[in-house]
Amino acid sequence: MKQRSKLILIAAAAVGLSECAGSPNSPSQRSPTGVAFKVATWNIRSGMGIRGFTTTSWSHETTNCTDQSKPVNAWAVGLPQAQLERLAADTGIVAVAFQEAWNCASPAAINAILGFKSASRENEGVVLLARYGFAGPIKYERIDAAANRWLTGGDVCIDPMCARKMTMFATHFGGNTDDDLPPEAGRVLDLLRAASRPHLFMGDLNTFRVDQWNPSVPCTNPDSGGRTAVINQIEQAGYTDAWKATQSGEGWTGMASRHGCGVPDGNLYKRIDYVYTLGARVLSTTRFGRAAPGADSPSDHAGLIAELEIQ
User: CA 20 to 30 Å from 296, out of 18, 72, 80, 306?
Assistant: First the structure.
């Protein structure tokens, strides 16, 4: 335990557990009758991390996190765990969605650190964990059979006694091309039409549009019809993009420490992780797990936290 704690302290110092640099939060004024809480989403990349430009002590190309006689990944040196410790310590966070929750960063390994009451089962790396549990059965809906993509969630308790709850879902969009994304978004919206309001869905949507929240820098691809269609579908259905509701500047969450990408070299360059809500007020947003450009990163994604309020 002493060695693990030491590794986590080192990892926390390297990545930074304070709110990440970038656009400042612009929290809305809270209602005196509202209930505020936080949710988070993070593509944890199986705990493999992304090695910094000058790092030689571990590799982001292996799933090994136990055998020290072979190359090990970020999980073996404590980088993802440091971020999970941060999430666990923030008791305002009532639910966390993970994508690519496999191998070293399995749901069981994640929740051994978070200590949440309940976790969904994992489908194609998607899992939703609830600090105070779920108020009913967890739902698992396939949104793309060919790509094996899922929408997972249910009614999440937002206090220890489960006196209040909100419907929340986790997902991960993806396919062979951008044209595979709009049908997945459409399926999610169809499924959520029957959900009680307020509700939300969150995750890695592999979708972005070049704008003030996702300005173009090296490696930011130009807009595509498929990606733009996804954003239009969701916004036209009335959903609030938590980052756009609270921030005036870039909200990049991918991709960490890639040579030749971002400004400066190795900085993030895509905004592909989202919290979308229908009926809840968004109070603030922030990112976590954001490494300095070109430095060791706990994942190729930064995580996203949104603070919400319901009546």
Answer: 306
Amino acid at 105: A
Tell me the Cα Rg of the chain: 18
- Under 8 Å between Cβ of 291 and 21: no
CA neighbor of 262 nearest in space, from 238, 242, 286, 292: 292
Would the pLDDT of 10 be above 50?
no
Q: Are 44 and 110 in contact (CB under 8 A)?
A: yes
| pLDDT at res. 32 | 78
CA distance 309 to 135: 19
Domain count, the chain: 1
Query: Backbone phi, then psi, for 198, in 5-degree steps?
Result: -75, 155
CB 104 within 8 A of CB 65: yes
CA atoms in the 13 A half-sphere facing the CB of 228: 7
pLDDT score of 35 more than 50: yes
Cα separation, 234 vs 147, whole angstroms: 20
- Whether the model clears a pTM of 0.90, i.e. scores above it, the answer is yes
Give me the pLDDT at residue 1, please: 41
The bridge status of strand 273-278 relative to strand 165-172 is: unpaired
Residues 6+ apart with CB under 8 A from 211: none
| Residue 155 confidence (pLDDT) above 90 | yes
Give the CATH number for residue 139: 3.60.10.10
